[in-house]
Structures are given as structure tokens and as C-alpha cells.
Amino acid sequence: MKDYYHGEGEAPGVWSGSVAKTLDLNGEVKEPEMSNLWNGYSPDGLEKMVQNAGAENRRKAGWDTSYSAPKGFSMIWGITQDEKLRAQLEQAHNDAVKDAQKYVEENAGYTRRGRGGAEHEKTSLLFANFQHGTSRNGDLQLHTHGLTFNSTVRDDGTTGSIESKYLFQSKMSAGAVYRASLATRAEGLGFEIEKDDKGLFDIKGISEQSKAEFSTRTGEIEKYIQEKGLQDTAQNRDKAAVATRANKQNLTPEQYRSNWQERGAKHGITSESIKELQGKAKVISEFERHKNRELVREQALAKVTHHHSTFREFQLDRAIAEESIGMGFTYSDMKAVKQGFLKSREAVEIYDGSGSNINRQFTTMRQLDLEQELKDRTAYLSENRSHSVGSEEIFKAIQRRPTMSQEQKKALTHVTADGGIKVVSGRAGTGKSYFLGAANEVWQGSEYQVQGLALSGKAASGLEDGSGIKSRTIDSFFASIDRQRETGSESGGQWPSILNAKTVLVVDEAGMIDTKRMTRLLAEADEAGSKVVLVGDAKQLQSIESGGAFASIAKNVGEVELTEIRRQREEWNKKAINDLAQGRAREAIDAFDARGLITVRNSSNKLYGELIKDWSAHGAVERPENHLILANTNREVDALNEIAQQKRREAGKLGDRKTFVNERTVYENDRLLFLENSRELNVKNGMLGTVNTIDHLKKQLTVTLDNKEQRTFSHNDYDKLSLAYAVTNHKAQGITIEQNAYVVTGGRLQDREASYVQMSRAKEQTRIYAQADSRPLQK
After folding, report:
1. Which residues pair with 630 in a beta bridge?
2. Distances from the Cα of 73 to the Cαs of 12, 82, 205, in angstroms?
3. CB pairs under 8 A, 24+ apart, for 222-229?
4. Of 121-130, 208-217, 383-392, 588-597, which range is least confident?
5. What is the pLDDT at residue 411?
6. Burial 122-149 (b: 16+ CB within 10 A, else e)
7. Strands, E assignment, 137-231
8. Measured between alpha carbons, how far is 714 from 719 in angstroms, rounded to an integer?
9. Which of 157, 375, 718, 741 could form an S-S bond across to 762 if both were Cys, CB 3.0 to 4.6 Å?
10. Model-level pTM?
11. Do residues 468 and 445 lie in contact, with contact meaning Cβ atoms separated by under 8 Å?
């Protein structure tokens, strides 16, 4: 501990937190006092502060939280020769750390007392802060290790340990408070900042290339993970950091700075260039700062309700802090934004019946209004008894499809019956597109216009290809409505509605549609007198944004279910997928295992090797379009795509011509995945195809899509492409694989819905690959 925190040449540690004042700990951290406190005793070592003080089996003496300045900020601090500026930057960093710790103490400091520790009591905290300026490689990195001791002094003078749960919950929020506070102080020193969409910032004017000069530790960690074949998880990155940790160089501060200045000069970062960066920040007035509070509040609430309808207080804290970057906010401003919301009529607290103020849960009045409107619109549409069809049309459609099952006939009759809203829930592979093709014929035969909708372009294309219903994305549909309204308003006339009482809207993969979009869709249909047919699967991956709309509507109006799986050819496979859908993961896993379809290895390198070996043995090198590898993360997918591509190249299945697209090497005959919609190219996000030719003179690719259509385009104009031997689960949803699927499971993204999608794609065989230390399929 002494060597790590009291590094040679580093600034001495300082005490912080309200408990420090109570214990009369001022200024510099001394080793005897710190060791006593770390072991659970009072600073003088004479009294126990916790019950298990000094015990060998004491599980947690404290927690280390690192507050690290952005790389550009650290570079300016380390390279400048202006001692006054260096001191100001250092003070800005230390003050931002104190703000973060003040947040933790105010929101996450809890102790237990009473029998079995049943009572939670708010308490103060004790910190020891150790500021360091370098990584173990001697790279510039201004950061502070903030130690939180696992002991406290309560308001009544008694002592005890800390409840760690709330510290962990507050970690990300505290980091956001630190960054927002530091950003404001950096701007106060004259530096312009640039913020990204992940709640991070850095100093504008410091190039990425120069930052890479001082980021060699990151490269070491990534290299270790790759060489050891580990999954790129937070836990494995921690392991890699420990395994690759070298002894710190024992240089003087002057020697470090000389080295940094020399390395920075290679990239044009000098004391003179730093002076030029200073003074570029926009000065934010007191009036603007107060005005920004309302904007931050709106943006933060939009962020916390984007994925879920409800949120915890610490989640709101993080969102407020992230949105405060660049707004000139102090920590007091951030607190004021939250208090303004909590005191407003917009805040709705959801009581759990415990009577505790810890982990309070909230929603907004706006979110409740949105959900109420969804219920109201659902009810209005349900009461609408229009859109009748002739029974002879239904009879003709069924006659044309002699293989239609009884439940498909039931679904067809259900959606074509009178009523403004109908719901069909069908499991993967149950033939939803097949019965919708029949429904399309019935509606058109009864002189209705049918419009297909889906959240993604790929799903819209799948609906159109499978059922014949002309389809588009729901967002493009809304955009057309908005444009027509705007055109009608500008011309002073009635806007030409693309919705009317003769319209039927068929929404595929409706479980992916979030509450906001679903509410607007039902509102548009209700106003126009149109009919809405929602088709989805509650067992597959659900809305990335605040969801539950599909399930809520199905509950309110009823649904017809398709349960008979028709995609898979073997009965055991159909049963296993049904078991997964019903939450019987153990039975499903046993079924795959009994047939030798599960492979477990202790490293990703070995696992990927086994997967590609099986992939090759079953004909994927020759016909990759009939096989697909699925994984949870983009990193896994990228690695597997490269291995599969190399395997095909070694087998002579790829052409000699190659090009570089989106930093990837692409050969003739490679499989490609389109990652973005393009109206000009007429491709949708998620489409798959095979490269026919590469024209170097025109810098063009000719790709044959899996629907047999060809596209020729310049990769300078469209480069949103990746290899498509492997795809993520979200990209795989809606895909049917003619032969085999090869599924990499495990990690934090593996859950029942992901497993269900993975196991239900292939018609013939699905093989499962798991790393020994990864999380298995959830029951």
C-alpha cells in the first residue's frame, strides 16, 4: 500500500471528507494513521472503529476510486512550462475530485446498525486522496486515487462500517460529477472543450495522434487480452492491468516533465502552442448559466427515460452531470437542477412500500401522460369496428395455401376481422410472414391499401420479401407524414394524407417499437380511421428504448399466438426453442448438449478455433450464405469475421482483387453486411450480400444481395459496411439461416431473449460455443 499510494516523486496524500474533520485528520496523510484506519482502528490505533478490526479475514478495508483527467488536460498540465498554469490545472483537478467525493458522501454514505444490520442510516465518509501524474509506463496521466475507508463516525459518536452497495451505485455518477466540474474549471482557465456523446470531454486542439503518444498502457492491456484469448470485459481488463503492471520509473518530476516535453514537441504540443489554446473558451455569463439549468434538466430527463420508463435517483444524477459538461455548471448547479425537478409537478415518485428514502425511484408526468395516451388510443382503436372484409376473400387466400396450419388460419381470421387494432404474437420460425401474405391478399381484395412498417430497414425488407406487403421504416413513414403536413400548411391547403379509413398498417417486430413511437403511430391511425395490425414476439429482443408497449397493448386488446415452429426441421430442435421461450433454459441446454452441439473452451482463441473448424467442416467456406456466426458484441464479431475471411482466402474462395472499406480489407467473393439505410443505393441497414467485382479505376463494388438484386456503388460514397460471416444478435433478428448457425454465448449481454434469438435462426443445426469462465445461458 505504501509503495503504491506514496509513490516516489508523487504529491503526498491528503485527507478529505467529513469524518476526517471529526477525527481531527488535517492535511497530509501519514503512514501510521492510514495503516491503523485501513485495519479498522482509530488513527492512533487505540480503539476499534469496526467489529472485525485487525482480523485477518476482514474482507474489505476500503475502496479505491480513480479520478482521471482527460488525456489532453493531462498533457497540458505535464508539458507546460508555465508554473502558474500548471498549479491552476492541478487545483482544478483536485477541486473536481472533492466535488465528486462530496456527491458520494451526500448520496451514498450509509452505515448499518441494529440487529443483523437491518437499519440503514445516513453517515459521513472518510477519504484519503493520492494525486499521481504518471502511469506505470511513465505516460502523462494526471489522476487521483481516492480511498474510501470502510469505517465511519455516526452522528451520535458511535462508529461502524460502511454499506458498500450504495458506493458502487454512485461510482459512475461520481465520475460524471468529476468530469463536469473539471470541464467548467478548464473553461474557466480559458480552454475550449469538446464533448462526445458518451458523457466525456477533452481539450479542443489536442490531436488524437499526440494523445496516443501518451497512451501506451491502453495498448499493453489490449495486447494482453488478445494474446491470452480473453473476452474484452471490465473484469478481464482489470486482470490485464495487474498482469502487465510494470514497476514505476523512479524519475524526478523534472525528469518526467523533460521527457514529456520532448515527446509532446514531436506532435507540436509545446508551452507556446498551449498558450495559443488558452483564451479560446467561450465565457458563460451568470445569466446563461442559470438559463442552462432548464436545458440540462430537459436533456437529462430525456436520457433517463430513453431506455426505461422509470429511473433511480443516482441515474438521474449521472445524466444531469453528463449534460452539464460545457454549460459552465458548478456542483451546486447540478444539485439545483435535480432539486428543481424533484420539487416540480413533473416528478412522480414511485413508492415501493418500504418507507425508505434510499434508492428512490421516479418517473415523469410526461412519461405517465405518454403511457396513458397509449392506453387511450388503444381503447379507441379497439372500439372501432370498421375494416370489414368479405369471407370469400379469406376462403380464396386459404385455398391458395394448402400447407397453412390451423393456428395460421386462426391468425389470418383474427387480423382481418372487424376492428381498428389487432395483435398477433408469434414465436420465431412460426410462419408469421406466410400468414401475413395471405392477409395482404384479403385486404387488397377488399380494396384496402396495406402499408408495412418496422423499426429497422432490414426488418422492413424482410416483411416485404416474406409477405409481399410494401414496407418501410416507421421513422421514414413519420417523416413522410410530417413533410406532407408541412407542404399542406405552406400552400394553405389540406395536406394530402397518406393515412385514411382504407389504410391497414402492418407493424412487424412490434416488440421492438418503443412507447413514444408506438403512441404516435396509434394516434395517427386513430385520427385517420386506419387499422393497425401489430405482429411481434415478446420472447425476442425488445425495444432498445423505453419499451413494453407491445406487451401492454396485447394485454389490453387480446392476441392470437403462433406457437407451432415451422422453421426448424427436427422436432427436438423445435422443442428446445420452445423451452427457451418458456424460460426452461436447462432443458434446452441439455438437449443441445446431448447431441454434441455445445463446445466449451477456456480461452476465446481456442473457442474461435473450434468454431471456425466446425464452420469449415459443414461447408461454410464454399457456401457462407447458408451459414452464420452469431455473437453478443461487435468486438467478438470483428474477430470472428477476420478469422473466417482468412479461412476462405486460404481455401482459394476469395478473389485476388481487394479494397479497403471502413478500415476493413474486402475481397471479391467476401460476404458483406450493410450498416446504414441509403435511399440512393436502395439498401437497408442489415441487408446481406456477396461481393461480385471490385473496380479499382472507378473505386466501385458490385454486390449481389441475398434477394438476388445487384447494387453497384463507390465505397467513397457509401462505406457503412462490414464483413458478414459473423453478426451481432440484434443484426440477426429477423434472419432465417438456410443451414447452420454457430453461436458464441456468454458475457453480460447474454440473457434469455438473446439466447432465444440465437437458437432460433437456423433451419438445420445450431452449435453453441462458450468460454469456460463466461456466464452461461440464463435460466
Report:
1. 727, 743
2. 21, 14, 11
3. 228/603, 228/605, 229/603, 229/604, 229/605, 229/606, 229/607, 229/608
4. 208-217
5. 93
6. ebbbbbbbbbbbbbbbbbbbbbbbbbbb
7. 140-149, 152-153, 159-160, 193-195, 201-203
8. 8
9. 741
10. 0.71
11. no
Please name the residues in contact with 434: beta carbons below 8 A apart, sequence gap of 6 or more. 401, 404, 408, 466, 467, 566
**Calpha distance 280→193 (Å, rounded):** 9
pLDDT averaged over the chain? 86
Residue type, 208: E
**Ramachandran angles phi, psi of 544, nearest 5°:** -70, -30
Q: How far is CA 776 from CA 252, 742, 750, 768, in A?
A: 49, 16, 8, 11
Measured over the CA atoms of residue 185, residue 186, residue 192 and residue 195, the dihedral's sign is negative
Mean pLDDT calculated for residue range 155-183? 94
CA angle 759-470-675, nearest 5°? 50
Residues 450 and 443 sit within 8 Å (Cβ to Cβ): yes
Q: Quote the radius of gyration of the chain (alpha carbons, Å).
A: 30
Q: Sheet holding 598-601: strands in order across?
A: 598-601, 765-771, 740-745, 627-631, 726-728
Q: What is the torsional sign of CA 170, 175, 176, 181?
A: positive
Distance separating alpha carbons of residues 120 and 111, to the nearest angstrom = 6
* Pairing status of strand 658-661 against strand 664-667: antiparallel
3-state SS, residue 554: helix
- Separation between Cα atoms, residue 99 and residue 183, nearest integer Å: 12
Considering Cα of 34, then 39, then 45, then 47, what sign does the dihedral take?
A: positive
Give me the residues paired with residue 441 across strands. none
AA letter at 452: G
Helix H or strand E segment including 15? strand 14-16
Rounded Cα distance between 563 and 407, Å, is: 8
Angle between helices 331-342 and 164-188 (to 10 degrees): 120
Q: How far apart are CA 247 and CA 635, in angstroms?
A: 30
Place of cell 395455401: 401
Which residues make beta-bridge pairs with 771? Answer: 601
Q: Which residues of 370-397 are buried (b: 16+ CB within 10 A; e: fewer)?
A: bbeebeebbebbbebeebebeeebbeeb
Mind listing the pLDDT tens digit for each residue in 701-733? 999 998 889 999 998 889 889 999 999 877 776
Give CA separation, 755 vs 576, 745, 768, in Å.
11, 8, 10
Spatial distance between the Cα atoms of 177 and 192, rounded to a whole number of angstroms = 19
- Rounded to 5°, the CA angle 171-172-177 comes to 95
What dihedral do alpha carbons 763, 638, 686, 624 form, nearest 10°?
Answer: -40
